[in-house]
UniProtKB/TrEMBL annotation:
It is found in: Cell membrane. This is Dipeptide transport system permease protein DppC. Coiled coil: none annotated. InterPro entries: BP-dependent_transpt_permease, MetI-like, MetI-like_sf. PROSITE patterns: ABC_TM1. It comes from Rhodococcus aetherivorans. Its main location: membrane. It comes from the Bacteria. Belongs to the binding-protein-dependent transport system permease family. The chain crosses the membrane at residues 36-55, 99-122, 134-155, 161-180, 217-246, 266-287. The keyword Cell membrane applies. Residues 99-288 form the ABC transmembrane type-1 domain.
Amino acid sequence: MSDVLIREPVAASAQAATGPHGPSRLRGATSALRRYGVLVVSTTVLLLAVGFALFPSVFASGDPLQGVPADKLQGPSAAHWFGTDNIGRDVYTRVVHGAGLSLTATLVAVGIALVVGSLVGLLSGAVGGAVDGLLMRAVDVLLSIPALLLSLALVTALGFGTMNVAIAVGVGLVANFARVMRSEVLRVRRALYVEAAFACGVRWHTVLRRHVLRNSYAPVVALAAVEFGMAVLAVSSLSFLGFGAVPPTPEWGSLISEGRNYLATAWWMTTLPGLVIVAVVLSAHRLGHAIEERSTR
């Protein structure tokens, strides 16, 4: 009798765990764990990249410009994590010290796109009429040109240099920010509290600053987080083509460019810096989408 009483609760608990809601709860928990695990990894990668940019000597104390000719083209090892290049410089050290220029150019590019695009979208959505039509046709022209091709044309006109690359990439991203800001301004512009502010005689620029802009910026900031990864890729691409910093200054794109002639004998010169760029781009993209999902709730 006692065995029956003991077995019945155990069976009931097992049935509850494997009941109709048990598998769905398990799948939900697994999905949440996977999602938050990816976010933790993405945040860690971005924090490491920022640490490389701000404190390069902490992560790599060597000289990125000086090499040891006797150690040239050595593969990855405990002494040289990313191997050495064709003149004996440590590739890991150059990647760490190159993060400063690459991420600074990316931040400048995203900042230009965010500020200029937001102003264009705000003005277009708030004023409307002919101004809206004129600005949006200019935005349509920018959208019809691939961003990398537009950046390449601009940096060719501006000249070489990391800041010129940043400006060119930023201009190429303006249209995306302008479109998102305009759509948000049009949504907020029809809200009752905005109409009430205008009806009470509040000046239009005050309404735009206090009510319209304040309630429209969240999706644009989320877009900036998403576009950060694409800006890293664009800046590295232009650097790879030779428009960035003057050699031997390390920059992520130029590091890949330097190693392309040694793919057959020293694959690490291009592969490992390329994997760093891929990790940063994917991490920024995933984190940006998480911010975007949170802002739309």
